[in-house]
Amino acid sequence: MSTAQLPSPVRRPVASGGRTGLSTAAGVGLLLLAACVVLSILVGSTSVSWNALLDADDPGHAVAGARLARTFVAVTVGAALGVGGACLQGLTRNPLADPGILGVHAGASFAMIVAITYLGLSDLSAYLWFAFIGAALTLLLVQAVASLGRDGATPVKVVITGAAVTAALTSWISGVLLTDRGTMETFRFWQVGTVGGRGYDVLLPVLPLLVLGALIAVVAVRALDSLALGDDMASGLGRHPARDRLLVGAAVVLLCGGATALAGPVVFVGLVVPHVARTLVGPAHARLLPLSAVYGASLVTLADTVGRVVLPPTEVQVGIMTAVVGVPVFVALIRRSRLGSL
Amino acid sequence: MTETRPVRHRPTTTSRLEAGQVTLGYGERAVVKELSLSVPDRQVSVIVGANACGKSTLLRGLARLLKPTSGSVVLDGEAIHTLPTKQVAKKLGLLPQSPVVPDGVTVVDLVSRGRHPHQGVFGRWSKEDEQAVVDALTLTHTVDLADRNVDELSGGQRQRVWLALALAQETDLLLLDEPTTYLDIAHQVEVLDLLVDLNRTRGTTVVMVLHDLGLSARYADHLVAIRGGEVYAEGRPAEVVTEAMVSDVFGLQSRVVVDPVSGTPLILPIGRHHRGAPQ
Amino acid sequence: MATLEAVRPDAVTLVRTARRRPRRRHALVIAGLSLLLLGVLTARVLLGDFTVTIPDFFRILFGETIPGASYIVMEVKLPRALLGLLAGMAFGVGGAIFQATLRNPLASPDILGMNLGASAAAVFAIVVLDMAGVALSVAAVLGGIGVALLVRWAAGNRQGPTGAGYRLVLVGVGAAAALQSVIQYLFTRTDVHDAQLVLRWLTGSVSAADWETVRVLTLLLVVAVPLVAWAARSLPVVELGADAATGLGVRPVRSDVLLLIGVTVVAVAVAAAGPVAFVSFLAAPIARAVNAGATTLLGSALVGAIVVVGSDFAADYWMPGGNYPVGVVTGAVGAPFLLWLLTRGRTGRSGS
Question: What is the pTM (predicted TM-score) of this model?
Answer without folding.
Answer: 0.83
